[in-house]
Amino acid sequence: MDNAVQQKKPKVKQLKNNFRFMWKEYKKSKYLFLMLVPTLVWYAIFHYGPLYGIQLAFKDFSPIKGIWGSPWVGLEHFKFLFFQSPDFLRIFRNTVLISLYHLIFGFPAPILLALLLNEIRFSIFKKVAQSLSYIPHFFSWVVLAGIVTVMLSPSEGPVNYILKMIGMEPIYFLADSNYFRSTLVVTGIWKEIGWGTIIYLAALSGVDPSLYEASKMDGASRFKQTWYITLPSILPVITIMFILSLGGILNAGFDQIFNLYNPAVYDVADIIDTYVYRAGILGAQFGLTTAVGLFKNIIGITLVLGTNFIVKKLGQEGVL
Amino acid sequence: MKATIGENIFQFILIIVISLLCIVMIYPFIHIVSISFSSPSEALRLGFHLYPKEIDMTAWNLVLSQKKIWIGFGNSVFRTVVGTFLTLFIMSLCAYPLSRKYLPHRTFYTMIILFTMFFGGGIIPTYLLIKELDLMNSLWVYIVPGLIPTFSMLVLRNFFMSIPTEIEECSKIDGANDIRILFQIILPLSKPVLATLALWTAVGHWNSWFDAVLYISDQSKQVLQFFLREIVVTNTDAETLGRSVVGNLKYESAIKAATVTFAILPILVVYPFLQKYFVKGTMIGSLKG
Protein backbone atom coordinates (compact mmCIF):
# COMPACT_ATOMS: atom_id res chain seq x y z
CA MET A 1 0.00 0.00 0.00
CA ASP A 2 2.75 2.33 0.90
CA ASN A 3 4.35 1.53 -2.40
CA ALA A 4 1.26 2.55 -4.35
CA VAL A 5 1.19 6.01 -2.80
CA GLN A 6 4.81 6.46 -3.55
CA GLN A 7 4.27 5.65 -7.21
CA LYS A 8 1.43 8.10 -7.51
CA LYS A 9 3.47 11.08 -6.40
CA PRO A 10 7.03 10.29 -7.31
CA LYS A 11 7.92 13.87 -8.22
CA VAL A 12 6.63 15.43 -5.03
CA LYS A 13 8.37 12.77 -3.04
CA GLN A 14 11.63 13.35 -4.86
CA LEU A 15 11.49 17.07 -4.36
CA LYS A 16 10.74 16.51 -0.73
CA ASN A 17 13.68 14.18 -0.49
CA ASN A 18 15.96 16.64 -2.20
CA PHE A 19 14.83 19.36 0.11
CA ARG A 20 15.28 17.12 3.12
CA PHE A 21 18.75 16.23 1.93
CA MET A 22 19.70 19.89 1.46
CA TRP A 23 18.24 20.76 4.83
CA LYS A 24 20.36 18.04 6.41
CA GLU A 25 23.46 19.28 4.63
CA TYR A 26 22.90 22.83 5.83
CA LYS A 27 22.08 21.61 9.33
CA LYS A 28 25.29 19.61 9.40
CA SER A 29 27.35 22.69 8.55
CA LYS A 30 25.09 25.31 10.09
CA TYR A 31 27.89 27.25 11.78
CA LEU A 32 29.83 27.35 8.57
CA PHE A 33 26.84 28.74 6.71
CA LEU A 34 26.02 31.12 9.54
CA MET A 35 29.46 32.69 9.15
CA LEU A 36 28.82 33.30 5.49
CA VAL A 37 25.42 34.95 5.97
CA PRO A 38 26.61 38.46 6.93
CA THR A 39 28.92 38.65 3.94
CA LEU A 40 26.22 37.38 1.60
CA VAL A 41 23.95 40.14 2.88
CA TRP A 42 26.76 42.65 2.42
CA TYR A 43 27.43 41.53 -1.16
CA ALA A 44 23.70 41.66 -1.87
CA ILE A 45 23.47 45.26 -0.68
CA PHE A 46 26.72 46.80 -1.83
CA HIS A 47 27.45 44.86 -5.02
CA TYR A 48 24.06 43.69 -6.22
CA GLY A 49 22.22 46.74 -4.88
CA PRO A 50 23.80 49.10 -7.44
CA LEU A 51 22.74 46.74 -10.23
CA TYR A 52 19.17 47.83 -9.44
CA GLY A 53 20.15 51.37 -10.33
CA ILE A 54 21.33 50.30 -13.80
CA GLN A 55 17.75 50.74 -15.00
CA LEU A 56 18.47 54.47 -14.88
CA ALA A 57 20.36 53.96 -18.13
CA PHE A 58 16.93 53.49 -19.73
CA LYS A 59 15.06 56.06 -17.67
CA ASP A 60 14.72 59.78 -17.34
CA PHE A 61 15.75 60.16 -13.72
CA SER A 62 14.00 62.62 -11.48
CA PRO A 63 15.10 62.75 -7.84
CA ILE A 64 11.52 63.26 -6.63
CA LYS A 65 10.14 60.16 -8.30
CA GLY A 66 13.12 58.00 -7.37
CA ILE A 67 14.75 55.21 -9.38
CA TRP A 68 11.62 53.08 -9.65
CA GLY A 69 9.15 55.88 -10.33
CA SER A 70 11.11 57.66 -13.07
CA PRO A 71 9.64 57.20 -16.54
CA TRP A 72 11.22 54.83 -19.07
CA VAL A 73 12.83 56.39 -22.11
CA GLY A 74 14.11 53.24 -23.81
CA LEU A 75 17.41 53.67 -25.61
CA GLU A 76 17.25 57.49 -25.70
CA HIS A 77 20.43 57.95 -23.65
CA PHE A 78 22.39 55.58 -25.84
CA LYS A 79 21.09 57.18 -29.02
CA PHE A 80 22.10 60.57 -27.70
CA LEU A 81 25.54 59.29 -26.72
CA PHE A 82 26.39 57.51 -29.91
CA PHE A 83 24.87 59.90 -32.43
CA GLN A 84 24.45 63.36 -30.93
CA SER A 85 26.72 63.89 -27.95
CA PRO A 86 29.78 65.98 -28.76
CA ASP A 87 31.69 64.44 -25.84
CA PHE A 88 31.24 60.71 -26.23
CA LEU A 89 33.56 60.12 -29.16
CA ARG A 90 36.25 62.20 -27.50
CA ILE A 91 36.09 60.48 -24.10
CA PHE A 92 35.86 57.04 -25.66
CA ARG A 93 38.86 57.69 -27.89
CA ASN A 94 40.88 59.12 -25.01
CA THR A 95 40.03 56.20 -22.75
CA VAL A 96 41.02 53.58 -25.30
CA LEU A 97 44.16 55.43 -26.40
CA ILE A 98 45.45 56.06 -22.88
CA SER A 99 44.69 52.47 -21.91
CA LEU A 100 46.45 51.13 -24.98
CA TYR A 101 49.52 53.24 -24.24
CA HIS A 102 49.49 51.96 -20.67
CA LEU A 103 49.19 48.42 -22.01
CA ILE A 104 51.86 48.70 -24.69
CA PHE A 105 54.46 50.40 -22.49
CA GLY A 106 53.31 49.67 -18.96
CA PHE A 107 52.59 45.97 -19.33
CA PRO A 108 56.04 44.78 -20.50
CA ALA A 109 57.91 47.16 -18.17
CA PRO A 110 57.67 45.06 -14.97
CA ILE A 111 58.45 41.88 -16.95
CA LEU A 112 61.62 43.50 -18.27
CA LEU A 113 62.63 44.75 -14.82
CA ALA A 114 61.94 41.31 -13.33
CA LEU A 115 64.16 39.70 -15.95
CA LEU A 116 66.94 42.18 -15.16
CA LEU A 117 66.58 41.74 -11.39
CA ASN A 118 66.60 38.00 -11.87
CA GLU A 119 70.04 38.16 -13.50
CA ILE A 120 71.65 39.95 -10.54
CA ARG A 121 73.93 37.62 -8.60
CA PHE A 122 74.55 40.07 -5.74
CA SER A 123 71.54 39.16 -3.62
CA ILE A 124 71.65 41.96 -1.02
CA PHE A 125 71.72 44.54 -3.79
CA LYS A 126 68.84 42.79 -5.46
CA LYS A 127 66.73 42.87 -2.30
CA VAL A 128 67.42 46.54 -1.60
CA ALA A 129 66.67 47.46 -5.21
CA GLN A 130 63.37 45.58 -5.05
CA SER A 131 62.32 47.25 -1.80
CA LEU A 132 63.12 50.69 -3.18
CA SER A 133 61.26 50.05 -6.40
CA TYR A 134 58.03 49.22 -4.54
CA ILE A 135 57.87 52.55 -2.72
CA PRO A 136 55.77 54.67 -5.11
CA HIS A 137 53.15 51.90 -5.19
CA PHE A 138 52.18 52.62 -1.60
CA PHE A 139 51.09 56.20 -2.12
CA SER A 140 47.83 57.58 -3.42
CA TRP A 141 47.65 59.52 -6.65
CA VAL A 142 46.85 62.61 -4.60
CA VAL A 143 50.29 62.39 -3.02
CA LEU A 144 51.99 61.36 -6.25
CA ALA A 145 50.23 64.10 -8.22
CA GLY A 146 51.62 66.60 -5.74
CA ILE A 147 55.10 65.17 -6.21
CA VAL A 148 54.84 64.80 -10.00
CA THR A 149 53.66 68.39 -10.34
CA VAL A 150 56.78 69.60 -8.54
CA MET A 151 59.12 67.29 -10.45
CA LEU A 152 57.74 68.36 -13.83
CA SER A 153 57.24 72.04 -13.07
CA PRO A 154 58.79 74.25 -15.76
CA SER A 155 60.13 76.74 -13.22
CA GLU A 156 61.32 74.56 -10.32
CA GLY A 157 61.30 70.97 -11.48
CA PRO A 158 64.45 68.86 -11.83
CA VAL A 159 63.21 67.32 -15.06
CA ASN A 160 63.13 70.67 -16.78
CA TYR A 161 66.45 71.46 -15.14
CA ILE A 162 67.95 68.51 -17.00
CA LEU A 163 66.26 69.62 -20.23
CA LYS A 164 67.73 73.08 -19.76
CA MET A 165 71.20 71.65 -19.15
CA ILE A 166 71.13 69.79 -22.43
CA GLY A 167 69.95 72.94 -24.13
CA MET A 168 66.25 72.31 -24.58
CA GLU A 169 63.33 74.63 -23.98
CA PRO A 170 61.35 73.90 -20.78
CA ILE A 171 58.28 71.74 -21.32
CA TYR A 172 55.06 72.14 -19.36
CA PHE A 173 54.29 68.42 -19.28
CA LEU A 174 50.99 68.70 -17.42
CA ALA A 175 49.43 71.53 -19.39
CA ASP A 176 50.57 70.68 -22.90
CA SER A 177 48.24 68.41 -24.88
CA ASN A 178 51.20 66.99 -26.79
CA TYR A 179 52.92 65.68 -23.69
CA PHE A 180 50.11 64.90 -21.28
CA ARG A 181 49.45 61.30 -22.34
CA SER A 182 53.15 60.42 -22.35
CA THR A 183 53.39 61.92 -18.88
CA LEU A 184 50.53 59.67 -17.76
CA VAL A 185 52.25 56.59 -19.12
CA VAL A 186 55.66 57.40 -17.65
CA THR A 187 54.33 58.33 -14.21
CA GLY A 188 52.10 55.25 -14.28
CA ILE A 189 55.12 53.05 -14.94
CA TRP A 190 57.05 54.85 -12.20
CA LYS A 191 54.32 54.01 -9.68
CA GLU A 192 53.68 50.39 -10.55
CA ILE A 193 56.79 48.92 -12.18
CA GLY A 194 58.38 47.71 -8.95
CA TRP A 195 55.22 46.23 -7.50
CA GLY A 196 54.45 44.58 -10.82
CA THR A 197 57.72 42.63 -10.72
CA ILE A 198 56.70 40.67 -7.62
CA ILE A 199 54.49 38.20 -9.39
CA TYR A 200 56.98 37.68 -12.23
CA LEU A 201 59.92 37.26 -9.86
CA ALA A 202 57.92 34.63 -8.00
CA ALA A 203 57.30 32.83 -11.28
CA LEU A 204 60.99 33.20 -12.26
CA SER A 205 62.17 31.65 -9.02
CA GLY A 206 60.12 28.58 -9.93
CA VAL A 207 61.95 27.92 -13.19
CA ASP A 208 63.86 24.65 -13.04
CA PRO A 209 67.62 25.49 -12.82
CA SER A 210 68.56 22.26 -14.59
CA LEU A 211 67.09 23.75 -17.78
CA TYR A 212 69.72 26.50 -17.68
CA GLU A 213 72.49 24.05 -16.92
CA ALA A 214 71.50 21.92 -19.89
CA SER A 215 71.27 24.90 -22.23
CA LYS A 216 74.69 26.12 -21.09
CA MET A 217 76.12 22.76 -22.06
CA ASP A 218 74.63 23.28 -25.47
CA GLY A 219 76.27 26.69 -25.62
CA ALA A 220 73.17 28.88 -25.48
CA SER A 221 73.85 32.57 -24.94
CA ARG A 222 72.20 34.54 -22.15
CA PHE A 223 69.76 36.08 -24.57
CA LYS A 224 68.83 32.69 -25.99
CA GLN A 225 68.32 31.32 -22.50
CA THR A 226 65.96 34.16 -21.71
CA TRP A 227 64.10 33.75 -24.96
CA TYR A 228 63.81 29.96 -25.03
CA ILE A 229 63.67 29.03 -21.35
CA THR A 230 62.77 31.95 -19.09
CA LEU A 231 60.01 33.56 -21.11
CA PRO A 232 58.16 30.34 -21.98
CA SER A 233 58.35 29.31 -18.32
CA ILE A 234 56.60 32.43 -17.10
CA LEU A 235 54.21 32.66 -20.04
CA PRO A 236 51.18 31.35 -18.07
CA VAL A 237 51.61 34.15 -15.52
CA ILE A 238 52.06 36.73 -18.29
CA THR A 239 48.87 35.45 -19.92
CA ILE A 240 46.79 35.75 -16.76
CA MET A 241 48.09 39.25 -16.07
CA PHE A 242 47.36 40.19 -19.66
CA ILE A 243 43.75 38.99 -19.51
CA LEU A 244 43.23 40.93 -16.33
CA SER A 245 44.63 44.13 -17.80
CA LEU A 246 42.62 43.71 -20.99
CA GLY A 247 39.46 43.56 -18.91
CA GLY A 248 40.36 46.94 -17.52
CA ILE A 249 40.98 48.49 -20.92
CA LEU A 250 38.26 51.06 -20.29
CA ASN A 251 39.77 51.88 -16.91
CA ALA A 252 42.36 54.30 -18.12
CA GLY A 253 43.32 55.19 -14.55
CA PHE A 254 40.76 57.51 -12.97
CA ASP A 255 42.76 58.29 -9.83
CA GLN A 256 45.81 59.29 -11.80
CA ILE A 257 44.08 61.41 -14.41
CA PHE A 258 41.64 63.04 -12.02
CA ASN A 259 44.53 64.33 -9.90
CA LEU A 260 46.79 65.34 -12.77
CA TYR A 261 44.54 66.81 -15.44
CA ASN A 262 43.29 70.35 -15.89
CA PRO A 263 41.00 72.07 -18.40
CA ALA A 264 44.00 72.84 -20.63
CA VAL A 265 44.36 69.16 -21.50
CA TYR A 266 40.73 67.98 -21.38
CA ASP A 267 40.79 67.30 -25.11
CA VAL A 268 43.39 64.55 -24.68
CA ALA A 269 42.89 63.58 -21.04
CA ASP A 270 39.16 63.44 -20.41
CA ILE A 271 38.22 59.76 -20.05
CA ILE A 272 34.93 57.95 -19.44
CA ASP A 273 35.29 57.95 -15.66
CA THR A 274 36.25 61.59 -15.32
CA TYR A 275 33.38 62.52 -17.62
CA VAL A 276 30.93 60.41 -15.60
CA TYR A 277 32.06 62.17 -12.45
CA ARG A 278 31.76 65.66 -13.89
CA ALA A 279 28.54 65.16 -15.83
CA GLY A 280 26.94 62.74 -13.38
CA ILE A 281 27.85 63.76 -9.87
CA LEU A 282 28.52 67.45 -10.48
CA GLY A 283 26.10 67.92 -13.38
CA ALA A 284 23.37 65.60 -12.00
CA GLN A 285 22.79 63.90 -15.37
CA PHE A 286 22.24 60.57 -13.68
CA GLY A 287 20.47 58.75 -16.51
CA LEU A 288 22.98 59.63 -19.20
CA THR A 289 26.03 58.85 -17.09
CA THR A 290 24.57 55.55 -15.86
CA ALA A 291 24.23 54.64 -19.52
CA VAL A 292 27.91 55.51 -20.08
CA GLY A 293 28.87 53.40 -17.07
CA LEU A 294 26.80 50.46 -18.29
CA PHE A 295 28.37 50.67 -21.72
CA LYS A 296 31.80 50.59 -20.13
CA ASN A 297 30.97 47.64 -17.87
CA ILE A 298 29.59 45.56 -20.70
CA ILE A 299 32.69 46.13 -22.82
CA GLY A 300 34.87 45.25 -19.84
CA ILE A 301 33.17 41.94 -19.07
CA THR A 302 32.99 41.03 -22.77
CA LEU A 303 36.73 41.59 -23.11
CA VAL A 304 37.57 39.47 -20.08
CA LEU A 305 35.33 36.59 -21.14
CA GLY A 306 36.43 36.90 -24.77
CA THR A 307 40.17 36.85 -24.09
CA ASN A 308 39.69 34.13 -21.53
CA PHE A 309 37.89 32.04 -24.15
CA ILE A 310 40.55 32.60 -26.80
CA VAL A 311 43.39 31.89 -24.38
CA LYS A 312 41.76 28.63 -23.34
CA LYS A 313 41.28 27.68 -27.00
CA LEU A 314 45.00 28.23 -27.50
CA GLY A 315 45.66 25.73 -24.75
CA GLN A 316 46.71 28.14 -22.02
CA GLU A 317 45.19 28.43 -18.59
CA GLY A 318 42.71 31.25 -18.27
CA VAL A 319 41.47 33.26 -15.33
CA LEU A 320 38.09 31.63 -14.88
CA MET B 1 81.53 27.63 -11.26
CA LYS B 2 83.95 30.55 -11.67
CA ALA B 3 82.59 33.78 -13.04
CA THR B 4 84.06 34.82 -16.34
CA ILE B 5 85.18 38.35 -17.17
CA GLY B 6 82.21 38.76 -19.45
CA GLU B 7 79.89 37.78 -16.63
CA ASN B 8 81.52 40.32 -14.31
CA ILE B 9 81.16 43.13 -16.83
CA PHE B 10 77.54 42.17 -17.35
CA GLN B 11 76.87 42.24 -13.60
CA PHE B 12 78.59 45.61 -13.31
CA ILE B 13 76.48 47.18 -16.04
CA LEU B 14 73.35 45.59 -14.62
CA ILE B 15 74.01 47.01 -11.17
CA ILE B 16 74.59 50.47 -12.60
CA VAL B 17 71.37 50.36 -14.61
CA ILE B 18 69.32 49.13 -11.65
CA SER B 19 70.94 51.71 -9.34
CA LEU B 20 69.96 54.51 -11.70
CA LEU B 21 66.45 53.16 -11.76
CA CYS B 22 66.31 53.10 -7.96
CA ILE B 23 67.44 56.72 -7.87
CA VAL B 24 64.60 57.62 -10.22
CA MET B 25 62.19 55.74 -7.97
CA ILE B 26 63.09 57.49 -4.73
CA TYR B 27 64.59 60.82 -5.69
CA PRO B 28 61.18 62.56 -5.99
CA PHE B 29 60.44 61.72 -2.35
CA ILE B 30 63.79 63.08 -1.19
CA HIS B 31 63.19 66.20 -3.25
CA ILE B 32 59.79 66.84 -1.62
CA VAL B 33 61.04 66.31 1.93
CA SER B 34 63.99 68.59 1.23
CA ILE B 35 61.78 71.35 -0.23
CA SER B 36 59.49 71.22 2.79
CA PHE B 37 62.38 72.32 5.03
CA SER B 38 63.75 74.91 2.61
CA SER B 39 63.61 78.67 2.73
CA PRO B 40 61.48 80.31 -0.01
CA SER B 41 64.42 81.31 -2.22
CA GLU B 42 65.94 77.86 -1.94
CA ALA B 43 62.60 76.13 -2.61
CA LEU B 44 62.16 78.08 -5.83
CA ARG B 45 65.66 77.32 -7.14
CA LEU B 46 65.54 75.26 -10.32
CA GLY B 47 67.54 72.07 -9.92
CA PHE B 48 68.09 69.13 -7.61
CA HIS B 49 67.33 69.27 -3.89
CA LEU B 50 68.95 66.44 -1.99
CA TYR B 51 68.87 68.19 1.36
CA PRO B 52 67.80 71.66 2.58
CA LYS B 53 70.67 74.19 2.56
CA GLU B 54 69.49 75.74 5.83
CA ILE B 55 66.53 74.42 7.71
CA ASP B 56 63.49 76.69 7.65
CA MET B 57 60.56 75.34 9.64
CA THR B 58 58.04 78.07 8.67
CA ALA B 59 56.10 75.87 6.26
CA TRP B 60 55.91 73.01 8.74
CA ASN B 61 54.75 75.36 11.50
CA LEU B 62 52.05 76.70 9.20
CA VAL B 63 50.83 73.28 8.15
CA LEU B 64 50.90 71.72 11.60
CA SER B 65 49.07 74.67 13.13
CA GLN B 66 46.12 74.07 10.81
CA LYS B 67 43.25 72.50 12.73
CA LYS B 68 41.87 70.75 9.67
CA ILE B 69 45.11 68.87 9.08
CA TRP B 70 44.70 67.28 12.49
CA ILE B 71 40.98 66.64 11.93
CA GLY B 72 41.91 64.89 8.70
CA PHE B 73 44.68 63.02 10.42
CA GLY B 74 42.30 61.83 13.14
CA ASN B 75 39.67 60.67 10.66
CA SER B 76 42.29 58.92 8.53
CA VAL B 77 43.59 57.10 11.59
CA PHE B 78 40.02 56.16 12.52
CA ARG B 79 39.19 54.70 9.14
CA THR B 80 42.54 52.94 8.91
CA VAL B 81 42.40 51.31 12.34
CA VAL B 82 38.68 50.48 12.57
CA GLY B 83 38.36 49.70 8.87
CA THR B 84 41.32 47.34 8.80
CA PHE B 85 40.16 45.51 11.90
CA LEU B 86 36.59 45.07 10.64
CA THR B 87 37.75 44.06 7.18
CA LEU B 88 40.02 41.34 8.53
CA PHE B 89 37.25 40.04 10.77
CA ILE B 90 34.49 39.93 8.14
CA MET B 91 36.90 38.78 5.43
CA SER B 92 37.85 35.75 7.55
CA LEU B 93 34.19 34.96 8.16
CA CYS B 94 33.65 35.02 4.42
CA ALA B 95 36.81 33.26 3.26
CA TYR B 96 36.66 30.34 5.67
CA PRO B 97 33.28 28.85 4.64
CA LEU B 98 34.17 29.33 0.99
CA SER B 99 37.39 27.39 1.51
CA ARG B 100 35.66 24.29 2.96
CA LYS B 101 34.47 21.64 0.53
CA TYR B 102 31.55 20.60 2.73
CA LEU B 103 29.80 23.97 2.57
CA PRO B 104 26.56 23.27 0.65
CA HIS B 105 26.31 25.19 -2.65
CA ARG B 106 29.90 26.35 -2.27
CA THR B 107 30.46 26.86 -6.01
CA PHE B 108 27.28 28.88 -6.29
CA TYR B 109 28.25 31.28 -3.50
CA THR B 110 31.77 31.61 -4.92
CA MET B 111 30.41 32.45 -8.36
CA ILE B 112 28.06 35.07 -6.91
CA ILE B 113 31.04 36.77 -5.28
CA LEU B 114 33.41 36.36 -8.24
CA PHE B 115 30.85 37.94 -10.54
CA THR B 116 31.07 41.22 -8.63
CA MET B 117 34.74 41.49 -9.60
CA PHE B 118 33.86 41.69 -13.26
CA PHE B 119 30.55 43.49 -13.32
CA GLY B 120 29.11 46.24 -11.17
CA GLY B 121 26.59 49.03 -11.21
CA GLY B 122 29.07 51.80 -11.82
CA ILE B 123 29.65 55.01 -9.97
CA ILE B 124 26.23 56.66 -10.36
CA PRO B 125 24.06 53.73 -9.14
CA THR B 126 26.49 53.21 -6.26
CA TYR B 127 26.29 56.90 -5.38
CA LEU B 128 22.50 56.77 -5.36
CA LEU B 129 22.56 53.63 -3.21
CA ILE B 130 24.79 55.28 -0.62
CA LYS B 131 22.39 58.22 -0.59
CA GLU B 132 19.43 55.88 -0.19
CA LEU B 133 21.14 54.09 2.71
CA ASP B 134 21.65 57.43 4.44
CA LEU B 135 25.41 56.96 4.58
CA MET B 136 26.14 60.43 3.19
CA ASN B 137 28.21 62.46 5.64
CA SER B 138 28.64 59.52 7.94
CA LEU B 139 32.06 58.22 8.95
CA TRP B 140 30.82 54.69 8.20
CA VAL B 141 30.77 55.45 4.49
CA TYR B 142 34.58 55.13 4.66
CA ILE B 143 34.35 51.60 6.01
CA VAL B 144 31.13 49.78 5.16
CA PRO B 145 30.86 50.02 1.33
CA GLY B 146 34.40 48.69 0.88
CA LEU B 147 34.28 46.27 3.79
CA ILE B 148 35.29 43.17 1.81
CA PRO B 149 37.96 43.68 -0.85
CA THR B 150 37.06 40.68 -3.00
CA PHE B 151 40.55 40.06 -4.35
CA SER B 152 42.09 40.00 -0.86
CA MET B 153 39.27 37.77 0.35
CA LEU B 154 40.08 35.26 -2.40
CA VAL B 155 43.76 35.37 -1.45
CA LEU B 156 42.77 34.48 2.09
CA ARG B 157 40.39 31.75 0.90
CA ASN B 158 43.15 30.18 -1.18
CA PHE B 159 45.41 30.18 1.83
CA PHE B 160 42.74 28.55 4.01
CA MET B 161 42.30 25.88 1.33
CA SER B 162 45.98 25.01 1.61
CA ILE B 163 45.69 24.21 5.33
CA PRO B 164 45.30 20.44 5.73
CA THR B 165 41.85 19.49 6.96
CA GLU B 166 43.13 16.76 9.30
CA ILE B 167 43.86 19.38 11.95
CA GLU B 168 40.28 20.54 12.13
CA GLU B 169 38.82 17.06 11.84
CA CYS B 170 40.56 16.13 15.07
CA SER B 171 39.12 19.06 16.94
CA LYS B 172 35.71 18.36 15.44
CA ILE B 173 35.80 14.97 17.09
CA ASP B 174 36.57 16.79 20.32
CA GLY B 175 33.34 18.72 19.81
CA ALA B 176 34.58 22.09 18.51
CA ASN B 177 32.26 23.85 16.02
CA ASP B 178 33.35 25.67 12.86
CA ILE B 179 33.40 29.10 14.48
CA ARG B 180 35.75 27.93 17.21
CA ILE B 181 37.92 26.11 14.69
CA LEU B 182 38.29 29.28 12.63
CA PHE B 183 39.27 31.48 15.54
CA GLN B 184 41.34 29.02 17.54
CA ILE B 185 43.04 26.94 14.87
CA ILE B 186 42.83 28.43 11.39
CA LEU B 187 43.43 32.12 12.10
CA PRO B 188 46.50 31.56 14.31
CA LEU B 189 47.95 29.46 11.50
CA SER B 190 47.30 32.25 9.01
CA LYS B 191 49.13 35.08 10.76
CA PRO B 192 51.57 35.88 7.93
CA VAL B 193 48.80 36.16 5.32
CA LEU B 194 46.63 38.15 7.69
CA ALA B 195 49.56 40.50 8.26
CA THR B 196 49.94 41.07 4.54
CA LEU B 197 46.24 41.62 3.99
CA ALA B 198 46.08 43.94 7.01
CA LEU B 199 48.86 46.03 5.53
CA TRP B 200 47.22 46.20 2.11
CA THR B 201 43.92 47.20 3.69
CA ALA B 202 45.53 49.75 5.98
CA VAL B 203 47.47 51.37 3.14
CA GLY B 204 44.31 51.39 1.03
CA HIS B 205 42.40 53.17 3.78
CA TRP B 206 45.14 55.68 4.42
CA ASN B 207 45.33 56.52 0.72
CA SER B 208 41.61 56.64 -0.06
CA TRP B 209 40.26 59.98 -1.10
CA PHE B 210 37.54 59.53 -3.71
CA ASP B 211 34.87 58.31 -1.29
CA ALA B 212 35.60 61.43 0.77
CA VAL B 213 35.15 63.62 -2.31
CA LEU B 214 31.90 61.86 -3.25
CA TYR B 215 30.11 61.33 0.00
CA ILE B 216 31.40 63.72 2.65
CA SER B 217 30.75 67.46 2.65
CA ASP B 218 31.05 67.95 6.41
CA GLN B 219 34.57 69.29 6.99
CA SER B 220 34.81 67.76 10.45
CA LYS B 221 34.52 64.28 8.91
CA GLN B 222 37.03 64.73 6.10
CA VAL B 223 40.17 62.64 5.79
CA LEU B 224 43.75 63.83 5.40
CA GLN B 225 43.93 62.92 1.70
CA PHE B 226 41.00 65.23 1.00
CA PHE B 227 42.66 68.25 2.59
CA LEU B 228 45.92 67.29 0.91
CA ARG B 229 44.06 67.34 -2.41
CA GLU B 230 42.69 70.80 -1.71
CA ILE B 231 46.15 72.09 -0.93
CA VAL B 232 48.28 70.29 -3.49
CA VAL B 233 46.06 69.34 -6.41
CA THR B 234 43.18 71.77 -6.67
CA ASN B 235 45.03 74.68 -5.01
CA THR B 236 41.80 75.75 -3.34
CA ASP B 237 42.82 75.86 0.30
CA ALA B 238 43.92 79.49 0.45
CA GLU B 239 44.08 79.51 4.22
CA THR B 240 46.60 76.70 4.60
CA LEU B 241 48.56 77.90 1.61
CA GLY B 242 49.07 81.13 3.54
CA ARG B 243 47.63 83.37 0.86
CA SER B 244 45.93 85.63 3.39
CA VAL B 245 49.19 86.55 5.09
CA VAL B 246 51.41 88.69 2.88
CA GLY B 247 54.73 87.32 4.14
CA ASN B 248 53.64 83.73 3.79
CA LEU B 249 52.78 83.92 0.12
CA LYS B 250 56.23 82.86 -1.00
CA TYR B 251 56.05 79.72 1.12
CA GLU B 252 53.51 78.00 -1.12
CA SER B 253 55.91 75.41 -2.54
CA ALA B 254 57.29 74.55 0.87
CA ILE B 255 53.80 74.35 2.37
CA LYS B 256 52.66 71.94 -0.33
CA ALA B 257 55.79 69.86 0.14
CA ALA B 258 55.30 69.80 3.91
CA THR B 259 51.68 68.64 3.57
CA VAL B 260 52.70 65.87 1.17
CA THR B 261 55.48 64.81 3.53
CA PHE B 262 53.06 64.82 6.45
CA ALA B 263 50.71 62.50 4.55
CA ILE B 264 53.39 60.04 3.42
CA LEU B 265 55.24 59.98 6.73
CA PRO B 266 53.22 57.22 8.42
CA ILE B 267 53.80 54.86 5.49
CA LEU B 268 57.49 55.82 5.12
CA VAL B 269 58.07 55.22 8.82
CA VAL B 270 56.56 51.74 8.96
CA TYR B 271 57.73 50.63 5.51
CA PRO B 272 61.29 49.50 6.35
CA PHE B 273 60.05 47.37 9.24
CA LEU B 274 57.03 45.84 7.59
CA GLN B 275 58.10 45.68 3.97
CA LYS B 276 58.60 41.92 3.91
CA TYR B 277 54.97 41.44 4.98
CA PHE B 278 53.74 43.66 2.17
CA VAL B 279 55.06 41.21 -0.37
CA LYS B 280 54.56 37.83 1.28
CA GLY B 281 50.86 37.51 0.63
CA THR B 282 51.06 38.18 -3.09
CA MET B 283 52.70 34.82 -3.58
CA ILE B 284 50.01 32.91 -1.77
CA GLY B 285 46.87 33.71 -3.59
CA SER B 286 46.00 33.69 -7.21
CA LEU B 287 42.65 34.28 -8.80
CA LYS B 288 42.07 30.68 -9.71
CA GLY B 289 38.80 29.43 -8.25
SSE diagram, text form:
The complex is a heterodimer of chains A (320) and B (289).
Chain A: H1 2-8, H2 10-28, H3 30-52, H4 66-69, H5 76-84, H6 88-106, H7 108-119, H8 123-134, H9 141-152, H10 158-165, H11 177-205, H12 209-217, H13 222-247, H14 254-260, H15 266-269, H16 272-282, H17 286-313
Chain B: H1 5-36, H2 40-43, H3 58-64, H4 67-99, H5 106-118, H6 123-132, H7 150-162, H8 166-173, H9 178-189, H10 191-207, H11 210-215, H12 224-233, H13 252-284
Helix pairs in contact in B: 1-13, 3-13, 4-7, 4-10, 4-12, 8-9, 10-13, 12-13
Question: What does this entry look like structurally?
Answer:
The complex is a heterodimer of chains A (320) and B (289). With 320 residues, chain A is mainly α. In chain A, 75% of the residues lie in helices and 0% in strands. Chain A contains 17 helices and no strands. In chain A, α6 crosses α11 and α7 crosses α11. Chain A folds into 2 domains: 68 residues, no CATH class; 238 residues, MetI-like (MetI-like fold, Orthogonal Bundle), CATH 1.10.3720. With 289 residues, chain B is mainly α. Chain B folds into 2 domains: 56 residues, no CATH class; 224 residues, MetI-like (MetI-like fold, Orthogonal Bundle), CATH 1.10.3720.10. Chain B is built from 13 helices and no strands. Chain B is globular. The C terminus of chain B is likely disordered. The chains are: A mainly alpha (320), B mainly alpha (289). The interface between A and B is large, with 93 and 92 residues.
